[in-house]
Amino acid sequence: MKTLKDVISLKFKTSESEGVIFHGEGQQGDYITLELKKAKLVLNLNLGSNQLGSIYGHTSVMTGSLLDDHHWHSVIIERHGRNINLTLDRHMQHFRTNGEFDYLDLDYEITFGGMPFSGKPSSNSRKNFKGCMESINYNGNNITDLAKRKKLEPSSVGNLSFSCVEPHTVPVFFNATSYLEVPGRPSQDLFSVSFLFRTWNPSGLLVFSNFADDLGNVEIDINDGKVSVHINVTLVKKNRIDISS
């Protein structure tokens, strides 16, 4: 396909911070890739470069953050020549691609949810998308409907299911006055705790526990946006250990 205009839209939700949402490339060096990187949305686009190096077409635009929250996010890419509108959850960003070419020349298949292994260094370092997509529309073609009715030719489809599995994790919301108290484990030498958290507040107490027999305590908190671990041991001269990250 050689196109002057493109309209690509879809919705996705995921709890993964990395993954290729769709990818297409051509023999002339053109490509378009939409992917998640560090839970941000990145669009890489190249309408063509020349071998002399005087025309460099690679363009990369990043938008959004914390998109691994397992909520639905809507993406629309509208291209007319070198002019691009990238809309994420109704927030539109306009930009122009680098280079001098207006047409997107894609000779190979377009893949959704990942990219084929091409032997290039860029292909094997990228993760496939893990999550749910719906309402995939590529230049007027309803891709999800065609995939479900097995009307895509040629197609190489892995383990697809036409339903969205909810994650097993159960989040807990704290309102700054609430807390969760759980029983400790006496006569154990090991103290181990792990959790995921998300907050807009720069400071707050995350975990606190007293050791048995008045041996001290451990405290994990956020202070000015940094996570700090404080371990107090009453029986040792240097009785306080502070770790910050």
Describe this structure in words.
This protein is mostly beta strands. It has 2 domains: 2-156, Jelly Rolls, CATH 2.60.120.200; 169-240, no CATH class. The chain has helices spanning 121-124, 143-148, and strands at 2-3, 5-13, 19-25, 31-37, 40-46, 59-63, 73-80, 83-88, 91-96, 104-105, 111-112, 132-138, 141-142, 204-210, 216-223, 226-233, 240-244. The strands form 4 sheets. The protein has a 6-stranded antiparallel β-sheet. A hairpin with a 2-residue loop joins strand 4 and strand 5. It is elongated.
Feature tags:
245 residues, mainly beta, Jelly Rolls, six-stranded antiparallel sheet, five-stranded antiparallel sheet, 2 helices, elongated
Condensed summary:
It comes from Chionis minor. The chain is mainly beta. It has helices at residues 121-124, 143-148, and strands spanning 2-3, 5-13, 19-25, 31-37, 40-46, 59-63, 73-80, 83-88, 91-96, 104-105, 111-112, 132-138, 141-142, 204-210, 216-223, 226-233, 240-244.
